[in-house]
Amino acid sequence: MRLITFTTTDGATHVGALAGDTAISLTRAAEGDPRFASMLDLVRSGDAGVEDARDLCDSHPAHAVHALDDVTLRAPLPNPPRLRDCSLFIAHLQPAFRGMARSIAAEAADPEAEYERLVATGKFDTPEVFSREVIYYNADHTAVSGPGDLIVAPAETRQLDYELEFAAVLGHTARDVAESDAAGVIFGYTIFNDWSCRDLQSVVMESQLGPSRGKDFDGSNTLGPCIVTPDELGSPYDLEMTARVNGEVWSHGSTSTMHHSFEKAIAHFSRNRTVHAGDVLGTGTVMSGSPVEIGKRLKDGDEVELEVQGIGILRNRVQLPY
Amino acid sequence: MSVDLLSPPSSAQYLRWLLAAKDPTQALQLAADHVAAVLDCPVSWAGLVEGDYLVMGAHHGVASTEMAAAWRLKIGEGIGGRVALERRPQMSRDYRHDSRRVPLLKRLIDNEGIQATLIVPLLVADSLLGVLYAAHRHPYPWTDTEVELLEEIAHDLGVRLHQLDVDGRRGQRAEAAERRAERATREQRACADLANGFATHTDPVGSLDLLAREIGGRVELRQGDGTLVRAAGDLRQGNARVIRRTELADCGGLTVVVIDTRDPDEQRQAFVDLCISLFRLQVLRAGERERTAERLNGELFDGLLSGRIGDPEEFRARVSMMGIDLGPGAQVLVAGSREHEPVGRADLDSQLRTVFPGVVTLERAGRAVAVLPPTGRPAPRVRAQLADLIARSRRGWTVGLGRSCADLLDFSTSYDEARAACELAIRGSVVGSAAGSVVTAHELGILGMASLPAAQLETMVRDVLGPLLDLDQRRGTDFVPTLRTYLAHDRHLPDTAASLHVHYNTVRNRVARIEEVLGVDMRDVDHRFRLETALRMHALSAALTGA
User: Fold this and answer.
1) Does a cis peptide bond (omega within 30 degrees of 0) precede residue A225?
2) How many CB atoms lie within 10 A of CB A114?
3) I want to staple B541 with a disulfide (CB 3.0 to 4.6 A). Which of A218, B351, B417, B457 is the partner?
4) Which residues contact B526 (CB under 8 A, 6 or more apart)?
C-alpha cells in the first residue's frame, strides 16, 4: 500500500491510500473507525489495522474515492512522536564538512589558504565514531511539512540546502529488538528532506551540541508524498535516489550505499530503551545529496524534487531571503 | 456433419448479411445463427466486452431465459474468460470433466444441457471486442477445421462490429475531438482577450495580472538570479508544482514561472506557452517604450549613475520590466575619443550589442555611457572582449571601464571610475602603467578617488602641492611635470632627464627646489606616497573639470 494523508476542499483531513490517479479515503470508508482517524492512529493500530486498511482498499464505497487532482496531499505522518535523523549514510559526511569549510573560507582574504588552515584543524574530518555506531540527532518533530508546501527559509540565513534522504516509520512500540527481528517493527518508508541552513549550522556546530537552529525552523522537515509499506516496496537497500532543481538533476545516489541498516539502527535505539510506533528514522544524506557537497546554491523560487525509486517524488519550492 | 456442405455462396451470403446489418445487435445475431448453421450445432452465442466482464450480446438456440439474461463472465475466469484474456481459441469436449468452469455459471450451463463448447475471440487489430461460442448438448470432439471456420466467422464479425462502432470508441473519440475543438476555440479567444488587454495596458506590472488571470494558477516574474520581481494569481486546492519555467528571450534574463496544482496536458501546455509568448512581446514593447522615454529624459539612469535611488525594490522591479539586467556583475563604461570627436550613443550601442546583448546605452555629461549586463564571464575576459571589439571597430575610441557592481549602489561608483579612467586616458595624463583602448581605475592608480567630489579633490591636491602649483603658475616653471616624471621613473635622474629632454643637473636642481618649497624629503617613502597620491588626484581633477 501507498498510504497518504490528504485534505479535501471542505478542509477535512483523511488518511488514505493511493490507487492509480485516485485517493481512497480510509477515514471515510471505515465510517468512524477511530483507527483510521489519522495516520498516527493507523500506525498505532498495529498489524490488524494494516490488514483492515488493505481490505478497505480492495472494497470500499464509491464516496470514499477522490480524484488525486481534487485533493491536497499533506505530510503522510504530520505528527510523528519522535523524529531522529541518523547517519546511516556516512560517505557524504567528508564532502559535506569540507564544503562547509569552503563556505567559511570564502569570506577570508585568501580563501584557499584559509580553507587549508581550516581542514588542517581536523574539525572538518569525519569522526570515526560515525562508522562505529549509529549517530543521530533529534530533529524537531513539530516542524514537519509536506509535499507542495512552500519552504520559507529563516530571515537570517544566506544558504539554504536540501538534503536527499529517506526514512523508515516504525509500526510497533518495542524495547530490546534484536537486529534480526527489527524488520518486523517497520511500518513503511517515506522520502525525507532535511532542509538545512548551512551558514547557521557551521556556526552553531562549533558548540558540539548538534546542528541546533541550522536545521530548525517551521517546516524544516519535509516528509512525503506517501508511506510505502514494506511488502509493496521490497528491499529498501537498492533504490535509486535523485534530487532535481528546476528539473535539472543535481544529486544522484543509491540506498545500496548505506553504511548502517534501519534494522541495525532500531536494534541500537531500542537497547534498554523504548522505541515508539510512529517514530521516524531518517537515513541522513546520500553521497552528493546536498548542494553544499557539489558546490551549488539554491535560488529564491527554485523547485526541489526528491525522488526515491518505489516511493515517489517529494516536491517543494523554496522562498529565500537572499 | 455439415462442414462438407458449407459452400462458398453461404460464406458470401453471411458477408452480405453482415454488411446489411444496421447495428451491432443485428450483426451479432447473424453471426450466432450462421455459426449454428455452418457448424451444425444447436447452440451459439456471442459475449461482448463491458469493462472487466463479458456480457451476452446475441444467442441462438438458448432454451432458458435465465441463460440469456444472466450469462456474465469475468475476463480471465472460466473458459470463455480465458479466451478473452489470452486471445486464442479454447475448447471443451466434455464439460462434465472440465476443471476450468466457473461455479457461478456452472448451473446456468448445466440447465441448458450444454456439454461441449468451442470458443474463439472477437478481435479487431489489437483490441478485443468479445468472444464467440459454438456448443453441443452432448460431448463433442471439435475438429481443427471447425476451429478455423469459427475463427473465420469471428474475424468477419469483428470487422463489421468495428465498422458499427460496437464499443462506442469512435463515438468517444468524436466527443473527445469535439471537446478539444471547443477548448481550442475558448483558448484562442482567451489569447485574443489577452492580446487586447496587453494593447490597452501600458503598465507592464499590470500585464502580469492579466497573464495570471488567463492562465490560472500563480504566475511569477523572476530575474535571472531568481529574485522575485512580481507575482500574481492564486493557487487552487492541491499540491503546487511548477508547470512552466520560461526565460523570456532578449529580456535581460527575465523568467516567467507558472505554478499550478494540476499537471497540464499537451493542449494546455501549448496555450500556456502562447500566453507567455504574448507576455514576452508585451515586455519587449513596454521595455522599448521605457527605453525611449529614458533616452529622452534619462531620469531612471540618472538616478542610478548618481546614486540617488529612492526605493531600491521599486527601482529594480521597474528596470526588470524594461528587460534590463542589473544583477551582480553588471559594469558601467564610458566611451570617448582622443580625436575630440564625440562618440555617438547609437554607434556605441550597435557595436556593444553584438557581444553584450541586453546592454543599455545613454548620453551623460557629453559622453556615451553603457551599462553592461552581467555576463557570468571573468572580469579579464570581459575586458579582453571589449578591447577586441573596440580594435575591430576601428573607431579609435577610448573606454573607461568601471567596477563590477554587486549592488544598485555600486553603479554610481562604477560610473565615476569609468568616467575618470576615460577622461584621464583621453588626455594622455595617465599616471599608471596602462594606456590602451580600455582602461580601468585600478590600472590608472586612482581607485577610491574617482567618486570624490571635485572640491574635495582640489583641496587635497592644494594641501600637498599648493606652493608648487602656485610657483608653476606664477613663474611658468615646470616643477609639477618634473615631479611627476621623477616619481614615475622611480627617482632615477638620468631617465627623468632623458624623458624631459633637459640636462641631468637641471633635474637635480629642480628636485632640490621642490623639496625645499614643499618641505619634503624624497628619500622618505611616506612623503613620496603623499606626493604620488596628490599628483594622481591633480591629474584626475584636471581631467574631470576639463570634461
Assistant:
1) yes
2) 17
3) B457
4) none
pLDDT of res. A306:
98
d(CA B311, CA B36) in angstroms, rounded, equals: 91
* Range name among A141-150, B6-15, B37-46 with the lowest pLDDT average: B6-15
Nearest CA to CA, how far is B36 from chain A (Å)? 41
pLDDT at B445 over 80: no
Question: What is the reported pLDDT for B155?
Answer: 93
Q: Give the contacts of B255 (CB within 8 A, at least 6 positions apart).
A: B221, B222, B223, B224, B245, B246, B247, B248
The answer to whether the beta carbons of residues A227 and A77 sit under 8 Å apart is yes
Up-side HSE of residue B45: CA atoms within 13 Å toward CB? 23
The answer to whether B401 touches B450, Cβ cutoff 8 Å, is no
Class of the domain covering A83-319: alpha beta
Yes or no: say if A204 and A214 are a contact pair by the CB < 8 Å rule.
yes
Do residues B470 and B461 make contact, with C-beta atoms less than 8 angstroms apart?
A: no
Predicted confidence band at B436 (pLDDT cuts at 50, 70, 90)?
Answer: low
A148:B240 CB<8 A: yes
Asked if A299 has any chain B CB less than 8 Å from its own CB, the reply is yes
C-alpha cell at B519: 618641505
Nearest-CA distance from B256 to chain A in Å?
Answer: 11
Tell me, yes or no, if A22 comes closer than 8 A to chain B by beta carbon. Answer: no
Closest CA to B122 of B149, B93, B88: B88
CA–CA dist A73, A225 (Å, integer): 7
For residue A195, count other CB atoms closer than 10 A to its CB.
24
Amino acid present at B458: E
Q: From CA B431, how far away is CA B443, in angstroms rounded?
A: 9
For residue A116, CA distances in Å to A99, A109, B496 come to 12, 13, 47
What pLDDT is attached to residue B2?
Answer: 45
**Hey, of A317, A319, A320, which one would you mutate to test binding to chain B, going by the most B CBs within 10 A of its CB?**
A317
Q: Higher confidence at residue A80 or residue B127?
A: A80
Task: Say which of A9, A73, A247 has its CB closest to residue B239.
Answer: A73
Is B240 within 8 Å of A69 when comparing Cβ atoms?
Answer: no
**Cα–Cα distance between B389 and B134 in angstroms, integer?**
88
| Residues B111-122: tens digit of each pLDDT | 888 999 999 999
Chain B within 8 Å of A55 (Cβ-Cβ)? no
**Domain residue spans of chain B:** 3-167, 182-293, 326-440, 454-546
- Decide: A299 and B225 in contact? Cβ < 8 Å: yes
Round to whole Å and give the CA distance between B177 and B164. 19
**Which has the closest alpha carbon to B419: B377, B367, B373, B489?**
B367
**Is B317 in contact with B205 (CB distance < 8 Å)?**
yes
In CATH, the architecture of B326-440 is 2-Layer Sandwich (3.30)
Q: What class has domain B3-167?
A: alpha beta
Residue B148: how many other CB atoms lie within 10 Å: 12
pLDDT band per the 50, 70, 90 thresholds, residue B97? confident
Cβ contacts of B259 within 8 Å, gap of 6 or more = A317, B217, B218, B219, B220, B235, B240, B241, B242, B243
Contact A72 B245 (CB under 8 A): no
> B310 pLDDT exceeds 90?
no
Q: Return the C-alpha cell found at B39.
A: 457448424
Q: Which helix (H) or strand (E) holds B18?
A: helix B8-20
- Residue % of chain B over a pLDDT of 70: 94
For the stretch A218-238, pLDDT in tens is 999 999 999 999 999 999 999
CA separation for the pair B411, B422 (Å, rounded): 16
Fold of B454-546: Arc Repressor Mutant, subunit A (1.10.10)
